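hey
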């Protein structure tokens, strides 16, 4: 009977996911941005919980719209959480979705703060979104996350 060679997929090295970078490898501005993104995720979880409690025990005008709002808040929290995780692992592909989410957060926060006159809610959201946008494009973060140019 011929001896079978182990397949590369069966080797322990192939099944092990790549190791996360050491905390010292992650630039400080990126760690701060990830902390702010995680704070946004936590805020959405709290908002979803409050909306869910209000939906269950209150008298919403449209119960299905309230449940849909809870679902969107949970989905946003998951997106922010996964984005922060990807950035901490120095995944270049995580920067673009986080950039888009933060850009979308700016007009929402502006509307809440100024058009709805709820400065205590919209102001901090706006400041955090602008801070994350700035931090994602600082030179140390760009150096850590920019991909090599394949043409060169």
């Amino acid at each position: 009977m011929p001896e079978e060679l182990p397949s590369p997929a069966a080797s322990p090295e192939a099944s092990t996911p790549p190791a996360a970078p050491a905390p010292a490898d992650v630039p400080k501005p990126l760690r701060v941005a990830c902390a702010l993104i995680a704070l946004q995720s936590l805020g959405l979880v709290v908002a979803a919980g409050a909306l869910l409690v209000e939906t269950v025990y209150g008298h919403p005008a449209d119960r299905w719209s309230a449940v849909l709002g809870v679902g969107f808040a949970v989905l946003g929290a998951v997106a922010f959480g996964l984005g922060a995780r990807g950035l901490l692992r120095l995944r270049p592909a995580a920067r673009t979705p986080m950039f888009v989410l933060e850009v979308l957060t700016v007009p929402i926060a502006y509307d809440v703060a100024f058009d709805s006159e709820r400065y205590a809610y919209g102001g901090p959201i706006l400041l955090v979104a602008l801070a994350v946008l700035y931090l994602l494009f600082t030179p140390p973060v760009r150096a850590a996350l920019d991909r090599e140019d394949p043409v060169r």
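The chain has a mean pLDDT of 88. DSSP finds six helices and no strands in the chain.
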